[in-house]
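Troubleshooting: if your tokenizer reports a length mismatch, compare your output against this known-good record of 267 residues.
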Amino acid sequence: MLRQSNLLGINIPGSANRLIATLFADDTTMYLSEYDDFYTLEALLSKWCQASRARFNINKTEIIPIGTSEYRKQVLTTRTLHPASTPIPQTIWILEDGQSVRILGTWVGNNASAVTPWLTILEKISSRLAIWETRHSDLVTRKHLVNQFIRATTQYLTAAQGMPDEITTRLQKTIGDFIWADHSSPLINRATLEHPVEEGGLGLVNLWHRNKSIQAVKLKLHLNLDDPAPWSPFMNAVMGKYVTAKAGDIQSWAKINTFLQSWDVPV
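Known-good structure output:
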């Protein structure tokens, strides 16, 4: 129904279909172009609900304007996607720059803090470690607790939107403090603890290395041209807008993949 509608959605270079909706369980994210109308979307969803017996709570809808800073301000001020479109109801929240909403466990917004989503996780980790600290566990047990809990608690958000260096530094310190909480100073070099067991270490997690491994896996998915990740065309399109000057004037259609071609983007 959505693909047969008049909604334009978002066209991504290199993708065969326009992006209109992503659905997972009871979470639905819609994508509208600047030429679409929110009323058209609302009418389609209403018809869809009648046919499927599903129910959309329109009043819980949250809108993230995308585009230039000027366009985002225009949407926020006029509550319309374009001058001729129907105004978005006042009951619907339109995010300002700096604000973010949670979508499938990640936090999305314009110019939003990358650190803020991690504060709740840091608090959860600190609370759990404080409880375990009262048990005065041995070194090996502490290592298992750290590896299982902290690694699992942080892996999803790290894979989805990265872990800021500030957070990595804080968590690395938290790990060290917990490992040696019963001692005034470390008894074994941190690097030694992080070595594999077969090399004389404990296999203690190093979040810097773990995070780089996650990035490497994502890059591997991106470079798989036979079965590319769903987000690969979008990533290529975004990077294609930021070609460095030394690469010269390259036509848009020729920018396929910076990792497989000789043009670069700032890092």
